[in-house]
Predict the structure.
Amino acid sequence: MEFGIFDHLDRNDRPLASFYEERLKLVELYDRFGFHGYHIAEHHSTPLGMAPSPGVFLAAVAQRTRRLRFGPLVYILPLYHPLRLTEEICMLDQMSGGRLMLGVGRGISPYEVGYYGVDPAETQARYVETLELILTALRSQTLTFEGKFHRFKDVPIELAPVQKPHPPLWYGVINPDATPWLAKNKVNIVSHVAAPVMGTITARYAAEFRGAHGREAALPKMGLGRHIVVAERSDEALAIARRAYARWFHSFTVLWKKHSSKPISASYPEDFDKLREMGTGIAGSPAEVRDVLLRQLAESGANYFVCRFAFGDLSFDEATHSLKLFVDQIMPAMAAQAAE
């Protein structure tokens, strides 16, 4: 069992310069406390994401950490020129000594890609072509490619990643039917669904993976994500979580409400109590949070646990306190159960 962090970098009331610095200080703690990976979202024209250029923020992460792996979850591939993104991937992997995690996707918001002049109906086709192009370029010294959206002939590729043939791939999953391609290509996955749904996803992923690569091959990471708030008392943790989640939910839905619609492929309730009932938001004392997570991990089949400690209007001190309680009093029990 290893542990990771997911961060939307959604906006709070802090000045942006302070916001970025406090997030980087949290990242330093994740590194010090032995977390495996730090995953950030990419969003545009919305308070949900203050890292619309993930590579810029991740370059700072590379310099502020020593062991922590990091990456976007995900790069919205239809918004990138594949040559430019290939070069960025190589730079980040080199600058970090081979710690980049390459999360890829097409994006879930038609409005965000639409603002960039991309037809939402084309995003899946653009995603597939761009991913093929990038993976080809990362293995090559010259690139020749003929596709629907991009054409290249004998383009020199001067940069290369540390990790061969490319940094490990990551993908967000909510549907078990997505697992065959992911398992065949050894893609690590993260999901924020209920534990029983995750159990279905991990069981199918593992079966597909072993069918493709043999029973002796090590499984990629199958990550279960959760909003987490830990405090000494349950009532204190719940009060913080309710307040912070309300701010996060506003940011999550603001662009959809602007267009009089609802989010696609994402099921989040309006308040934290309902999120808690679903099992995807967890707040309480260390003992309460530990017991819930041990049950969920057993049910989900996940081998990687992904925490959201900073969201909404959680202050730096609140997020830090929650993190330290998790590391000291919850993480060891989860690791011990997974090792049994």
Notes: The chain has twelve helices and twelve strands.
